Amino acid sequence: MPEGKHRAMGSVSRQTLDCDECGSTYFTDASPMAKLCNECSHQLYGYPQCVHEFVEGRCFHCGWDGSVSEYLRERRRSAESGPDRQS
Ligand SMILES: [Zn+2]
Ligand SMILES: [Zn+2]
Q1: To pair with 35 at 20 to 30 A between CA atoms, which of 12, 19, 25, 66?
Q2: Ligand nearest to the Cα of 27, by number
Q3: pLDDT, position 81
Q4: Which ligand sits nearest to residue 30's alpha carbon?
Q5: Ligand 1 midpoint to CA 75 (Å)
Q6: Contact 55/62 with Cβ under 8 angstroms?
């Protein structure tokens, strides 16, 4: 299994940007939002979440590197400790 050099069939270089929320780089074609990575789009706006598969520290589907902003970290923590957690 080739690691690190994942290539989508045919298409080559994918455009990457920095996420405004968490600061991670991400593939623009994997995110529905213009300035957010796939993960933050999901966390903030409920868009479908990438099934992350990390290769060498970043998801090869969406490019997210696992960064989580302070805001989302806090939000997740209060959600987890909250009384009505959703599963
Ligand atoms: Zn992000
Ligand atoms: Zn991903």
Answers
A1: 12
A2: 2
A3: 86
A4: 2
A5: 14
A6: no
Query: What is the CA(4)–ligand 1 centre distance, in A?
Result: 21
Ramachandran region, residue 27 (left: φ > 0; alpha: ψ -120 to 50; beta: rest) = beta
- Would you give the DSSP letter of residue 54? E
Question: pLDDT tens digit string along 22-48?
Answer: 999 999 999 999 999 999 999 999 999
Distance 36 CA to ligand 1 centre (A): 5
Ligand approaching nearest to the C-alpha of 64: 2
Closest alpha carbon to 32 in 40, 24, 21: 40
What are the tens digits of pLDDT across the range 41-87? 999 999 999 999 999 999 999 999 999 999 999 998 998 887 665 55
